[in-house]
Amino acid sequence: MGQTNRKQKPECTNAEVAEKVEKHEEEQDEESEYVQENMKTSESNENVDEEIKESQEALAKKEESQEKWDHQLQRKSKKLEE
Fold first, then answer.
1. Which residues have CB under 8 Å from 12's CB, separation 6+?
2. Which end of the chain, N or C, is less packed with Cβ atoms under 10 Å?
3. Mean pLDDT, contiguous 10-residue spans, the chain (82 residues)
């Protein structure tokens, strides 16, 4: 019977489609670069955390060693005093 008048979207030209595809690919590349930078930062943070942990462990061992040395000196001092 009667056809309704629907507004049809104008068809995109090949150039417009190519432009949209190119823009989308550029956005994907930018996202990929952003993700890679964040991964590098994350890895760097993990490395720094590991270095801090190792440094703290070394410091704790050094303090423990110093305490042992102090105890030895105290014992030797007591023996010398006797």
1. 20
2. N
3. 58 86 93 89 88 93 92 86 75
